[in-house]
Amino acid sequence: MEAEHPHAHSSILKVGLPLQIVIGAGQDKVNCGSTLLGWKERAWLICEWPFHFGQAVPCETGTPCLVRSMVVGKLVAYPSEVCMTQMAPLPLLYLKFPRRTEEIHLRKDTRVASNEPVLLMKGVPGDATLALREGSVPIGGLLQDISLSGCRIVLQRPSTDVMLGATVYLEFELIGVGHVSHLAGTIKNVAERDGVLSLGVEFRFNGKEVIEYRGWGGNVQKAIEYAVMQRHTDWGFLTPASEP
Question: Which end of the chain is more exposed for a tag (fewer CB within 10 A), N or C?
Fold first, then answer.
């Protein structure tokens, strides 16, 4: 459920908070990650100047942007604009303090469509350390949908290659967030039709999963949570508006 707050305050802010920032407008906009470093109430936010392909994202004073963050079980977004840039001694961006925010409280296990390649590695059933089999060969498939608790994967493989209740490791890309690997899962259901195998996999977050970030902070579980809500919600209506 969306809620709009016309007078934002610092309760949605925390030093070290991971941010996703859409800088610019139209075809020139860039989706990038940053970290909140501080703020002055009702005045400005200060964050790391995000880099894209090894270069600081081009922007100048007055460039519009949209800021998103995960805060205490909800996705918060607000329009802002660049107030000032600084390259030395550290590359920093100063953004306008949010005057209004829109929030979406997370729905349990919201499932969204996906269409990304995924690799599976079979684990040893019952092995608490989730060690891989000697000579285990990755199985390629397609991530069909994903939620915080699990995903559905389709494979062009015979059903003898997988077993109900088996442990697998997953590796896939969360678009705009990062590359997930070594994420454990349990096969909860298997269906086969016309030679295509469909697997329902329940995630097992055990602290061994890792993610290579695209400028975004947090753990794998938070990254999936964010990616699901980002796809589930169209934030296009929240655009920079003239301030009173």
Answer: C
The answer to whether the beta carbons of residues 159 and 197 sit under 8 Å apart is: yes
Q: Are residues 138 and 166 in the same domain?
A: yes
pTM assigned to the model? 0.58
The count of structural domains within the chain is 2
Each residue's pLDDT tens digit, 10-41 = 678 888 888 888 898 877 788 888 889 999 99
* Amino acid in the structure at residue 242: S
Contact between 211 and 179 under an 8 Å Cβ cutoff? The reply is: yes
CA-wise closest residue to 97 among 137, 154, 43, 168: 43
Task: Point out which residues pair with 188 in neighbouring strands.
Answer: none
What is the spatial distance between Cα 240 and Cα 177, in angstroms, rounded to a whole number? 23
Q: What's the CATH number where 139 sits?
A: 2.40.10.220
What are the Cα distances from residue 103, in Å, to 3, 6, 76, 94? 5, 11, 5, 23
Question: Of the candidates 39, 35, 46, which has an alpha carbon nearest to the alpha carbon of residue 11?
Answer: 39
Q: Tokens 């990254």 correspond to what residue? A: 223
- DSSP-assigned states of every residue in 47-92: EE--EETTEEPP--TT-EEEEEEEETTEEEEEEEEEEEEE-SSS-E
Distance CA 67, CA 32 (A): 10
In 3D space, the residue among 57, 9, 35 whose CA is nearest the CA of residue 215 turns out to be: 35
